[in-house]
Amino acid sequence: MNKSQSLYNRITFIIILIACCSTQSLSQATTHVKGRVSTPSNKAVPFANVAIFNTHNQIIGGDVTDSLGVFQITDVTEGLYKLQVHFIGFVPYQQDSIYISDLNETDLGTIIIKRQKTRLEEVEVVAERPFMEQSLGQTTINVGEHLSGAGESAIDLMRFVPSVSTDEDNNVLLRGAPVTILVDGVETDLANILEQLPAETVDKLEIITNPSAKYASRNGNGIINIVLKKDKIKGSNGRIQAAVGHPEKWLFGTSYTLRMKKLASYSYVNYNHNTDEQTTETHRTTVLNNNESNLINKGVSKRNMDNLMLRQGFKYQINKSQFIDLRGLYQISTNEFQSFNSSHVYKADSSLKNHTKNTAYGEYKRRYWEVNGRWKKEFKNKSSLNLFAKYEQQFIDNPSHRFIQPYNISDGSVNQSYTTQNRAYPETTTSSRLKFDYEYPISEKLKFETGGIVIQRRAKASNKYLKTKYTYNTDDETFTPSSDSTKSNSFIVNEISPALYSVISTEIKGIYASVGLRYEYTHIEPYSITSDTGLIQQYHKLLPTLQLSTNLGEKFSIGFSWSKRIKQPKYKQLNPFVIYNGLYSKSGGNPQLKPQEINNYELSAHWQLSKHSFSPSLFHKQNTGLISQYQHIIIEDEREVMYRQYLNIGNSQQYGFELNMSNRITESWSLKSNFLIMHQTIKHYAKAHYFNVNDLSYNAKITSDILLPQNFRLQLTGVYESPTNTVSGLKYELYFFDLGLRKSILKKKGALYLKYADALNTLERRKLNDNTPNIHSNTKSKQQSRRLLLSLTYKFNKIRTSK
């Protein structure tokens, strides 16, 4: 991308952001609509869907009745409306020509709905939830039928989550730090879970920035809980989805649910195919022993990916107070890849020192399966007990072959000698966990929660590495091979991690308080089979949490939270195997890593004003024993190789301000905005290399959602991330713009989605490394981020009621 095109894209991007933010609207007085839904015998109907529509048949608000059958719809302007009530097994209710005045609250009184006495076929109940819901300490993204999830994996949903970003390896970051991913409240060992999980299976995302002691947080920061779809309608229902995209992408998925009186069955199948291409360019200067060398490396890599996922579940309702849920999942993934790199190394006087070209190809294969079961019992004293067990196994193999061709420095001709590298990296991981949770409401304003979990993991990996150098003999024109397999090794990690927690929640004079304490014990045994060496690491931690909140009026609330967490080293961070990333870069783990300790403090508020909501937060984070990669230059085969190894590199502190806003500009146009400003200091002391990082960064994420005539919906999303200083150097600014269009068809049973990701083709990652001694490097990478996707979804259901 040339400079003029880059400037044009940046100006266009800024104009779009301004257009998304700039709104001029007249403030209108609003009121509330309330009422009660009951049966003819005056029995309350809880969980009924109540919605009001304007004269253009557009939904403008809704609610779900509570345990007393009461509903309240807020922020309704003066005008003429109609009201609808839907509940499974009852005749749909509609009341037309309701005039709502802004002078006082409108009370519709008691609405009586009658039971269905005939068999219903192909009945669909639609209740649209807002895309984003905000409360103190938690943000919920309702994916549902939202167009953002059409035909994509769950990793693409992260584009719409406040303060969440992804790095070049698709690691998910919350406020710049790794986040813990849960699926239905339970952590999983499935590698790259968000890339493997189809977005079509996701119901909502729960983002908790400072969780209580009830939640485990292996990464020590916030959590993102992925709640999968669970159809609760009796009868049979399901959906079919197909999509095609450019560059080459297609998928097919289907789900089916059958719910009977006590037994329910859930089935899901998804197959997708995807391709990707990435270009990289690195300019690196190193100085060793007063000798300067300059590396210029350019490369292109291509991937061809296929993924099959099968999910099956059964739920049996033993009685009204208890049920059993059994589920299983199987997944197989393949990733065929090839890459080409050209490297030139120059001396300080700009004369050529080395020139090579290398080609690599291989296949990444993964097989994963899991089974889990859940039993829940509710007692007469309103307490409940939840038992959960899970076993999972994952096998990964990544064989690759590399051909390295040197060139003669004098005339640039091909050198007859060459080198090959053959590598296989089979890895097997198994884990099992047993978890229990108990809740006991002591009184209306006092609740006690306790629980525990035991996790057992075992990971075994073998690094089979063979390097062969073929030396050309000019006399007889033959090759003499010389092989080296000394870098092959095997490694095992065994881990057991029990934990217990207790939380007491109460309300005293309008102040809600929750105090928790979590105890975690970890026993890890990393062992090298090759060298017959190992060590034992074990540590006990008491991790307290505190959460306070109160309402200052009907529309304003404020809260404070504090938690202490630890970030445990991951298996790959402990594994000392060396992984080569080309000829001039390699990385490895460190079995002597210690856990990182984290203290989180957050002051947050929530303000609901008419059709606008504001959620500001001030936060402070302290990290001790920060886990990060330390990098330095080593000489290997007469080449300067960058070696990255995980270490406890130092301490860090973060201070930040975050603002989430939800603004309904008109009945058909809404904005969701997120702004983050963060100051970070890092004190680096690893390997006797002392330096400080002092950085101020700011990010913005804006989504504009517009409801158009003829059941069209348009969504525009812009993301900007400022330059950020890290331990390894500077990450340059990043910005992109997405566009999506949705059209309901087939009487709203189907939908067409069109998504244009990175419409301006600006998503490019650039890094400057100037924090490492004797190294100065610039790296630029560009994926095929501009993508077009068209998908079709069709849903069906047959709801049956008793005659």
3D structure, described in words:
The protein is mainly beta. 4% of the residues lie in helices and 67% in strands. The chain is built from 4 helices and 48 strands. The strands form 5 sheets. The protein has a 32-stranded mixed β-sheet that branches. It has a 6-stranded mixed β-sheet with strand order 8-9-15-16-13-14, with no helix packed on it. A 4-stranded antiparallel β-sheet has the order 3-2-5-6, with no helix packed on it. Strand 18 and strand 19 form a beta hairpin. About 3% of the residues have low confidence.
Strand tally: 48
- Separation of termini? 67 Å
Rg over C-alpha atoms, rounded to the nearest angstrom: 29 Å
- The global form is globular
Number of DSSP helices?
4
Structural category is mainly beta
The residue fraction in helices comes out at under 10%
Strand content: over 45%
Rounded average pLDDT: 84
Stretches with pLDDT under 50, minimum 5 residues = 18-28, 118-127
Strand count, sense and barrel status of the largest sheet are: 32 strands, mixed
